[in-house]
Amino acid sequence: MEQTRVFNALNTTVSQETLRYDSCGRVERKRVQLTQEGQLLDDSTTSFSYTFGGKMSQVIYPKSDRSGFPAVCYQYDELERVVAIGSPQAPQLYQSFRWAPDDNPLSGTLNAGLQEQDFTYYSPGWLQANTEPQAHQGFEENILSRYDDGKVQKVESRFSGESAQGLNTTVSVSYDELNRVTQALCQQQNLWDLRNVTYDPNGNTLSRIAGGQPQQLSYVPGSDKIASLSGAESADWDFTYTASGAVKTVSRSETADRSSLTFDYVAGSLQVASISLSADDKQLQFAYGNKGLRVMKQLIAGDRQITRRIYLFGLDAQPLSEVVGNDVTHYVYGPQGLVAFFCEGQRYAVIKDHLGSVRLVQDSQGLAVAQFTYDSFGRLVGSIGNTGLLRYRYTGQEWDEETGLYNYRARFYSPLTGTFYAVDPKNETASPYLYTSNDPFDYTDPTGESLLGDIFSWIGQVLISTLEIVAAVALDVVTDGAAIATPLSGALLGAGLSTAAAEVGAAAQHKSLSWADFGENQAVGAVSGAFTSGVGSLARARAMPWERWCRALSKAGVNAVKAANFVTRVGVEAVGSTLGAVTGKMVENGINGNNVALG
């Protein structure tokens, strides 16, 4: 079966996808045709193979016939965890894993085994260290976390090799009562410090010392929109906005390569159609395809095209290949994101920190070719080597050098301000421009809209699990373990405990349990709980009067409602810093008649 989808990708560009499915309904072939003004720009095909259990086993990349890039193969253990990523000839060419029972990686290799990795954890499962015992040009990270909630207190980042010693950092982090970062002090280089951060009630930054420079931020009256930023990169910056609250212009007080940016948006959308660069009278133009993903970026000077980059995606939101003229770059991904890329006939390995930020690029011989160090909110403060090899950097996001912004898919992010340039599409924070609720050491925002979505998803799953446990106990108590109630309470208890254990493990790793995994844990727990609780109990069912059944179910319902109130309170307290800010903004806007979404 085939399905064709057409997307009006902007700037006279059209993206057409044709998907072919196998007998199990899985995509086995994806063809993308990109046209501009009726002219075919690109026609590429990606092929997929699967294991018997439905896991991706092989991907034949688009343009691989041109570049000579071999198929990427995935191998799994009996629990369907990735244990090897490689090629048909070298199964562990890119990465390998050894897993702990709680699904945390214990060790692994990168770069055809040249780079070893060992992972250690605190008892709740929080990452403590990522070490590389035998690397002569590698990267290691040690993390000190608070014992009660896992918040990062200190991060020690070390590069091996004499030339990179100036990039080593030991950063100590302090938070306020709402878990917002107030200081991040670098032991080696105080110019990389973040100091004395102050916030308004909505979490907007008012002042700070960053890069050794005092900075002041002012806001459009009655809103969360930054009007001006003084002291950043020895300059003053001014901002204007569209009616929907997205940044319209950014201007700098002195002449520089990025002295002024003007944004044009797709009507009724946060998607940027173009950015005009006043410094050199050029314009960036963008086109988007399925799920709003960027499929083209081109730099124009007048009527002349300077460069055009075409993005080719698989079934996820990460590009598999990019085409610039006759050059093709391929990207390889694993459970922790980008692990390698292939360009100009050369293979490179990528080593990241706990946030997924790229810190080191190695060639196929294990030699460092590029190294990166960032400040608290992602500004590149130190680098060595050929950094232009890779544009995916801070938290793994695409760096647009022309604008100084990161492409977080749903929105552009500025490491200079530490905020997004458009409002949160999901309206999840008091100020719709905040990045990670001002805690960039513990959280990331992979799509530009997902931080609190994960948190509220976690609360919902924990709420369901806790209700099941409480209802099971209540049902068992009020029925005196009656025969019919016992398997039911066992199923509830099994489902609740199984999912709660999985949630604890996921939270310990600073990630959320997918709803698919949630359902799987519910099913396994319910079946096992019902089976173990129900054996031998049917004979007692006849002795229980119908009236007692009604009273039992009524009491169980009351207890479930009480449990809901309790868990809701616990959940609110667990994310109190954010929910408190959201509630405060809602109250304020209710009084003043303002709209949270528009700042």
Key terms:
599 residues, alpha+beta, 18-stranded antiparallel sheet, 15-stranded antiparallel sheet, 6 helices, globular, disordered C terminus
Low-confidence stretches: 455-459, 503-514, 534-544, 558-599
Q: How would you sum up the global shape? A: globular
Structural class by secondary-structure content: alpha+beta
Euclidean distance between termini CA atoms: 47 Å
Counting H and I runs of at least 4 residues, what is the number of helices?
6
The total of beta strands comes to 37
Mean pLDDT: 82
**Major sheet summary line:** 18 strands, antiparallel
Give the fraction of residues assigned to helices: 10-25%
How much strand?
Answer: 35-45%
Radius of gyration, whole Å: 26 Å
Organism: Raoultella terrigena
Keywords: Repeat
Protein name: Cell wall-associated polypeptide CWBP200
Pfam families: TEN_YD-shell
Descriptive notes:
- There is one protein chain.
- By secondary structure, the protein is of the alpha+beta class.
- The protein has a domain at 451-588.
- Helix 2 packs antiparallel against helix 3 and helix 3 (485-508) packs antiparallel against helix 4.
Topology:
Elements: E1 2-10, E2 13-21, E3 27-36, E4 39-50, E5 56-60, H1 64-67, E6 72-76, E7 82-86, E8 95-99, E9 105-110, E10 115-121, E11 127-131, E12 139-145, E13 152-159, E14 169-175, E15 181-186, E16 194-199, E17 205-210, E18 213-219, E19 226-232, E20 235-241, E21 247-252, E22 260-265, E23 272-277, E24 282-288, E25 294-301, E26 304-313, E27 319-324, E28 327-334, E29 337-343, E30 346-352, E31 358-363, E32 368-374, E33 380-385, E34 398-400, E35 405-407, E36 412-414, E37 419-420, H2 451-478, H3 485-508, H4 515-534, H5 546-574, H6 576-592
Antiparallel strand pairs: 1-2, 2-3, 3-4, 4-5, 5-6, 6-7, 7-8, 8-9, 9-10, 10-11, 11-12, 12-13, 13-14, 14-15, 16-17, 17-18, 18-19, 19-20, 20-21, 21-22, 22-23, 23-24, 24-25, 25-26, 26-27, 27-28, 28-29, 29-30, 30-31, 31-32, 32-33, 34-35, 35-36, 36-37
